[in-house]
Amino acid sequence: MTETGLGDRFRMPEKSSPRRTPQNVPYRDLPHLVNADGQYLFCRYWKPARAPRALVFVSHGAGEHCGRYEELAQMLTGLDLLVFAHDHVGHGQSEGERMVVSDFHIFIRDVLQHVDAVQKEQPGLPVFLLGHSMGGAIAILTAAEKPNHFSGMILISPLVLANPESATTFKVLAAKVLNLVLPNLSLGPIDSSVLSRNKVEVDIYNADPLICRAGLKVCFGIQLLNAVSRVERALPRLTLPVLLLQGSADRLCDSRGAYLLMEAAKSQDKTLKIYEGAYHVLHKELPEVTNSVFQEINTWVSQRIAPAGARSPP
Ligand code: XP7
C-alpha cells in the first residue's frame, strides 16, 4: 500500500479497488476505453504485420462479444487492415448490467468514440464497419450519423426488421405496456439451435462463459424495437458501399430485412448475397457457407482499398 503518512483512513482508492470486469479481471491488465458515462469497455486490437491500409471496426451482436470475431479479424489483418472492436455496454468483458442499455444510441455513441480514438492514432486511413445482427443495426446507425465518414460497411444478417412472429402489433403494444410495469421481466433466451446448422458452433456458443444466455429483458426488447424503427428511417441516408450477407432460413433476422435494405439504401455500390438454407450466424455456419462468407468479404474489401504500396507517403 502507498504510504500517505495519514494512516488507514487515507488508503489510495485506485490501489485498493481497481476497476474490474464482470469476470473480476482488473481493467488495468486489459485494453479498454472509458465511455462518456464513465463505464469501462473491453477492447480488442488485431494489428497487421505491415503498415495498415485501412481500419475496420467490428460490431458484435446481442448477448455475444467481440472475441467471437477472432477468425474474421485474422483474415482481415492478412489484407493489412487494422481491426478493432469492443464489447458493447452490458456485454462480454465490458461494464453495465447484462444486456441492458438505457437507450440504443449509447451503442452508437461508444462506437463513434472508439473510431475517433483509433483514427487519431492512425490518421488518413479509410474506415470500414463490419456488423452482425444487432451489431449490424449499430453499424447502420453509426454510418447514417456520419455521412461520408466511412468507406464501406459489411453486414452479416443485420437486424433491420423485427422477426414478424415475435413483433406482431399486439405483442409490440403488450411489450410497451409491460416495459412500464415489469421492465426486467425476461422474454426467454435465444434458442441456440436456430443460430447455426453447424452443431460444433452451437456447442461453442452454449459453452462460452462470456455469452449472456439469460433471457432477453423486456426493456432490452424495447430498445431493439427502437433500433429497428431508427434503422428503417436511416436506410435512405446510406450512401456508402455495402456488402450484405444473409441466410434464407434465418429465423432471428428475417431475410426480408436484407431485401428492404437493398431497396431503401441510396448507396450506388451495394451487393447482396443470399445463402440458401443458411441460418443466422453465417460466419459460424456450415463450412461451405462460412468459407464463402470469408472469401466474399476478402474479395469485396480488397477491391475497395488502395493496393499495397500505393498509398502516398505522409
Ligand atoms: C428482438 C424484441 C427484437 C451470435 C442478435 C448471438 C438476434 C434479435 C443475436 C427481440 C425482442 C424485439 C450469437 C435476436 C436481436 C438481434 C447472435 C431479437 C446475435 N449472433 N439478435 O453469434 O443480435 O430481436 F422485442 Cl427486434
Characterization of the model:
It is a single chain. With 314 residues, the protein is α/β, with parallel strands linked by helices. The chain is built from nine helices and eight strands. The chain has helices at 13-16, 70-77, 105-121, 134-145, 169-181, 199-207, 218-234, 255-264, 287-302, and strands at 32-34, 40-46, 54-59, 81-86, 127-132, 152-156, 242-247, 270-275. Strands 1-2-4-3-5-6-7-8 form an eight-stranded mixed beta sheet, with helices on both faces. It is globular. The mean pLDDT is 93. Bound molecules: ligand XP7. Residues 61-64, 68, 133-134, 159, 162, 166-167, 175, 190, 195, 216, 221, 224-225, 228, 252, 281 line the site of ligand XP7.
Keywords:
314 residues; alpha/beta; 8-stranded mixed sheet; 14% strand; globular; binds ligand XP7
Q: Gist?
A:
It is built from 9 helices and 8 strands.
